[in-house]
Specification:
By secondary structure, the protein is an alpha/beta fold. The chain has 19 helices and 10 strands. A 10-stranded mixed sheet has the order 3-2-1-4-5-7-6-8-10-9, with helices on both faces. Helix 11 links the parallel strand 2 and strand 3. Helix 1 runs antiparallel to helix 6 and helix 4 packs across helix 6.
Length: about 500
């Protein structure tokens, strides 16, 4: 049975292996082994339902034929196991032959191993890890779903695993966003930088309640979500996450959504719902920026993803997107034009201001949630500030943000009214004219009384650069207005 000691037991084994260094490698090592175990359980089911099923994995490389220890003394271990994994298993899975006829349920095997590595150097310890993972019976629905909670602990570990934290959005945040967006069975849901699949699994949890005992509904559920992830480790984590959540054919691509030209984006199938936490703090090279119209080109990754979202949201579709503070106050040319397009073509109905340290310890940059739909141009936008819970100075790994911290926001969501605290607005509605007059600086209903947050050096540099660009743009705008009033060109 899956149990809460699962992670600790494997961690204890890996600490003794000189090949595994740090949390990120430990997680990657666990996940490729876990993927093969889960995939084998899925194949058992597919074989049961389809007499003509043919596996993409060669027979000797299937989990059941090399990993299962029958306690008869014949199980691969030590140098023999290492040699099998390094010279047979990995090379074969990395070089599986696929074509346009290959189903996604088989493509994911090759894509999962394209950039995966076996870090363990001790074959006896590797055998111990394999045996621990083999204890879980993924053919049992109840046990598979119990394991979902344990798998979530892997993903939480990413927050303290160096840069890997960028791929994990706290579950409280994804659940809140899903709860107010209200996905319905039959809608197509996308995340174009899906990381470990947190948004998609939150959405699937909501959809699962609508499936019932209908096989037709189960088939619809299986086709509900779509993701793209650029980096290998989170892609493997996401695909495995989908398999755990009973998505037999995970439509999770290994690639970069920003590398598609906007003319092609317009031709692609749009989505009913887009849920995202676009990577921020990074910059894109010129070869990526040129995929977008000149006026919408930005060096910032989060800005470019806003363009992708706008091109791929279906008419009357709904979106909920986490954006950094700089997107709100930024008024440089690219941000100005992106926000102008967003507000003039989409209905940006709500902005939720989140307290600091939601993504600690990965980053201290403040984040916000934009909610919009593709129904009409924006007429008015509500802003609501989620304050730090009583008794908290910061969120941390041991005291993370919880769904209950959004309770007041969820109550307000259904019955909106303006709220003022100590003469500062906590919730307030602004007309589109007020927003345009501010040159789309939507840094509204902020945090007036909080102590200054000490940012990491690189985060601080980024914030100053964004504020400088915003101030320069505002000065240029004012100078243009004065020049125009004076009759200049």
């Amino acid at each position: 049975m899956a149990n809460s000691n699962f992670v600790k037991r494997i961690q204890g084994v890996m600490r003794n292996d000189s090949g595994v260094n740090g949390d990120a490698q430990r997680i990657e090592q666990i996940v490729w082994i876990l993927f093969l175990k889960i995939y084998d359980a899925k194949e058992e089911a597919w074989e049961l339902y389809d007499d003509n099923y043919t596996s993409i994995i060669p027979e000797e490389l299937k989990w059941r034929n090399w990993a299962v220890d029958k306690k008869d003394g014949d199980a691969l271990t030590g140098d023999s196991l290492l040699d099998f994994v390094n010279t047979k298993l990995f090379p074969a899975l990395k070089n599986l032959e696929i074509d346009e006829e290959t189903p996604m349920s088989q493509i994911i095997v090759k894509s999962a191993f394209e950039d995966a590595n076996n870090y363990q150097k001790d074959g006896i310890l590797l055998r111990q890890v394999v045996n621990i993972i083999d204890e879980i019976d993924f053919t049992e629905y109840k046990e598979r779903h119990e394991f979902g909670a344990i798998y979530e602990s892997f993903l939480k570990d990413l927050q303290s695993a160096g840069n890997a934290g960028e791929f994990y959005t706290p579950r409280a945040v994804t659940d809140f966003m899903v709860e107010v967006v209200k996905p319905e069975l039959g809608e197509k849901i996308a995340d174009f930088a899906c990381g470990t699949g947190g948004f998609l699994t939150s959405a699937l949890s909501a959809l699962d309640k609508q499936v019932g005992n209908s096989l037709e509904n189960r088939g619809i559920y299986n086709k509900s979500v779509y993701g793209i992830e650029k980096k290998a480790l989170p892609h493997l984590l996401s695909v495995t996450n989908m398999l755990i959540h009973d998505i037999d054919d995970p439509d999770i691509l290994h690639g970069n959504a920003l590398e598609t030209d906007y003319k092609e984006l317009r031709k692609m199938a749009p989505f009913d719902i887009i849920l995202m936490n676009p990577p921020y703090g990074g910059s894109e090279k010129e070869s990526v920026k040129v995929n977008f119209p000149m006026e919408l080109r930005s060096s910032e990754t989060a800005d470019l993803f806003m363009n992708v979202i706008m091109y791929r949201l279906k008419k009357n579709g709904r979106a909920a997107v986490i954006i950094p503070e700089g997107f709100l106050f930024g008024t440089d040319n690219a941000k100005f034009n992106i926000k102008k397009k967003l507000f003039s073509e989409f209905n940006v109905h709500t902005v939720i201001r989140m307290p600091h340290s939601v993504f600690a310890p990965y980053t201290s940059i403040r984040t916000n949630i934009l909610f919009f739909d593709n129904s009409k141009p924006t007429e008015e936008t509500w802003f609501y500030r989620v304050d730090m819970p009583e008794g908290y100075k910061n969120f941390s790994k041991t005291r993370p943000m919880r769904l209950e911290h959004f309770n007041d926001a969820m109550t307000w969501w259904e019955n909106r009214e303006e709220i003022e605290v100590d003469f500062y607005p906590k919730a307030k509605k602004y007309s589109i004219n007020e927003i345009v007059d501010r040159s789309y600086n939507i840094d509204l209903c902020g945090f007036p009384h909080e102590e200054e947050v000490i940012l990491e050096p690189m985060d601080l540099i980024q914030e100053y650069q964004e504020k400088r660009a915003s101030l320069n743009a505002e000065i240029d705008h004012v100078l243009d207005q004065i020049t125009s009033m004076l009759g200049g060109n």
